[in-house]
Design goal:
The complex is a heterodimer of chains A (about 100) and B (about 120). Chain A has 4 helices and 5 strands; from the N terminus they run ααβββββαα. Chain A is an alpha+beta fold and about 100 residues long. Chain A folds into 2 domains: about 40 residues; about 60 residues, HU Protein, Chain A. A 3-stranded antiparallel beta sheet of chain A has the order 1-2-5. In chain A, a hairpin with a 6-residue loop joins β3 and β4. In chain A, α1 crosses α2. Chain A is elongated. The two termini of chain A are about 35 Å apart. Chain B is of the alpha+beta class. Chain B has 3 helices and 5 strands. In chain B, strands 1-2-5 form a 3-stranded antiparallel beta sheet. In chain B, a hairpin with a 3-residue loop joins β1 and β2. In chain B, α1 packs across α2. Chain B is extended. The C terminus of chain B is likely disordered. The chains are: A alpha+beta (about 100), B alpha+beta (about 120). Chains A and B meet through α1, α2, β1, β2 and β5 of A and α1, α2, β1, β4 and β5 of B. Chain A: Keywords: DNA recombination, DNA-binding, Transcription, Transcription regulation, Translation regulation. Chain A: Belongs to the bacterial histone-like protein family. Chain A: Pfam families: Bac_DNA_binding. Chain A: This is Integration host factor subunit alpha.
Chain lengths: ~100, ~120
């Protein structure tokens, strides 16, 4: 799926937006997400997942090809944590039941 | 930023009613969820890509009791940050990380799974 297919979904499902408007609005959604993360703010989309920021310290790494040690500089990284709802949507049978049973 | 804050931001910047902005945001994430359900990856230029990864069944453990628990095969979404966003995020180190902790939502890890703290 590409952005243009998301645009198509917005255009055909919502109604009232032209193709061009739909495209601009989908761009606006991703731009807003990007800008938010770009100022160090995490994002939580309930039912979908969280975009989490983490600061990593400088550490010693290795070039996996050559085995050569390299210094990995300190950095900020973005991780996505899928929500339980999204995980369940991808696993339609009752195979999340085990997890639930343990929590109770 | 929460989903409702995103909706507010979109309503403001896109000059939409809140109800319309909410429909828009829901539609975007619904369409993405449906693609993942079809086992289809999603690629958003400049943002990143989502893929579905299959996981084999394995024997996990309840960390509280130490009891072995069978973990069935499953499919999980995986996000790979796009180059542009990766660089943008890294250059935001001048700002403190904000947006609250990660626990007050519905995305808590399965209790029987290892937490993949660091990749």
């Amino acid at each position: 799926m590409t952005k243009s297919e998301i645009v198509q979904a917005v255009y055909s499902r919502l109604g009232g937006f032209s193709k061009k408007e739909s495209a601009e609005l989908v761009d606006l959604v991703f731009e807003t997400l990007k800008e938010t993360l770009g100022r160090g703010e995490k994002i939580k989309i309930s039912g979908f997942g969280n975009f989490v920021l983490r600061d990593k310290r400088q550490r010693q790494g290795r070039n996996p090809q050559t085995g050569e040690p390299i210094l990995i500089t300190e950095r900020r990284v973005l991780n996505f944590k899928a929500s339980q709802i999204l995980k369940q949507a991808l696993n339609p049978r009752d195979n999340m039941v085990v997890a639930t049973a343990v929590t109770e | 930023m929460t989903k409702s804050e995103l909706i507010d931001a979109i309503a403001g910047r896109g000059e939409l009613t809140k109800a319309r902005a909410e429909m828009l945001v829901n539609c975007v994430f619904d369409a993405m969820t449906e693609a993942l359900q079809r086992n289809e990856g999603i690629e958003i230029r400049g943002f990143g890509s989502f893929t579905v990864r299959p996981y084999k069944p394995y024997s996990g453990r309840n960390p509280r009791t130490g009891q072995p628990v069978p973990v069935p095969a499953k499919r999980l979404p995986f996000f790979k940050v796009g180059k542009e966003l990766k660089e943008l995020v890294n250059s935001s180190r001048q700002f403190a990380i904000t947006g609250g902790d990660d626990s007050d939502d519905d995305s808590d890890d399965d209790i029987i799974e290892d937490d993949d703290e660091d990749e």
